[in-house]
Amino acid sequence: xxxxxxxxxxxxLTEFFVSIGEKPYRARQVFRWLMNxxxxxxxxxxxxxxxxxxLDAAAAxxxxxxxxxxxxxIDGTRKYLFETADGLYIEAVLMEYYYGYSVCISSxxxxxMGCRFCASGRHGLARNLTPGEIAxxxxxxxxxxxxxxxxxxxxxxxxxxxxxxPRIGHIVVMGVGEPFDNYDNVxxxxxxxxxxxxxxxxxxxxxxxxxxxxxxxxxxxDDLPQANLSLSLHAPNDEVRRRIMPAASACGIDExxxxxxxxxxxxGRRFSFEYALFSGVNDSGACADELAGRLAGQGFHVxxxxxxxxxxxxFEAPPPARVAAFAERLIVRGIRTTTRRExxxxxxxxxxxxxxxxxLGGGP
Length: 364
Ligand code: SAH
Prior knowledge:
This protein is of the alpha/beta class. Helices cover 33% and strands 20% of the residues. The chain has helices spanning 10-19, 25-35, 49-58, 131-146, 183-194, 214-223, 238-244, 253-267, 285-295, 320-331, 353-359, and strands at 3-4, 59-60, 64-71, 78-84, 89-97, 100-105, 108-110, 125-128, 168-173, 206-210, 228-232, 272-277, 301-306, 336-339. The strands form 3 sheets. The chain has a 10-stranded mixed β-sheet, with helices on both faces. Strands 1-2 form a two-stranded parallel sheet. Strands 7-8 form a two-stranded antiparallel ribbon. A hairpin with a 6-residue loop joins strand 3 (64-71) and strand 4 (78-84). The model has no long low-confidence stretch (mean pLDDT 92). The protein binds S-adenosyl-L-homocysteine. Residues 115, 117-118, 174, 178, 209-211, 232, 234, 274, 276, 305, 307-308, 310, 350-351 line the site of S-adenosyl-L-homocysteine. S-adenosyl-L-homocysteine binds next to strand 10 and strand 12.
């Protein structure tokens, strides 16, 4: 198997180049090329032909290949199904907002949190993704962005590269997997993508979503305080939460909210809670009031997600009027509340569904 250079930090890459008898600065050149989406050794024009040949024999550029891709006719959302070198499938979703592109990437092949409503955990965890596999999801999507597809919904493109071509503006680690169950690899990726010598993505352009693993949240607050952290709460009390998120509710809601307060104080950043609405489970007026009672007056943001029903799991989305009523009850208590717009509804964009179809032998 060829060496996966994108799994390495710049320091490790430097050691690699020294070990093959090259000068350390070669590592910086290759690191910059890789993190900015070079698709072949020949693009790396500042390397000698001889070095390019040697690298080609020893190392792979990409860790993933595109196995399938679907484009929404409604809003331009693109779903990528990637295959790893050992034949696992993972997903990423590339979205267009008026200000630019955002990519939602996966941190694990599968998941072991077992949230009852979620497609990603249905087959358990296959394995953690490596830093290079996590990186390649945005790197390969960004090649398409640079090639200039879409732009149908983008009126105020904010992020461009040195040559004026569009770039991805935001990375959200909110795809398949629990990022803090694979902390070291996720953090190695985040360090690489924000490294000024590589892609130089702003830390504020990153959002990580967790089901609430306390140790990971604490480490994240120390390691990357400028990034955004989002917590999937989905319940107004521990009883409901335990029912729908059995592993995640090892940590109680009081403790999670206590951490959120500490996080806001320490980092100076607004803390976001995600709250998926499941019909008859957590979407009543009483649930909204209970949630509001716990969250009001602390500067938190709540993002409501109408359920993406996964066939066979028995969770349904409430009608839009019920979602609006839920939001209203939080808003009157002064809680900043947004409702997630559904993107890519025509291409099975619900988390983990493309992958699930593939594993079950259906789908494309
Ligand atoms: N493990 C992380 C990130 C992955 S999922 C986390 O739990 O935050 C991204 C978000 O989608 C989470 O809030 C998750 O709970 C939610 N989600 C998963 N399945 C869903 C479904 N069927 N409908 C609505 N939201 C869902």
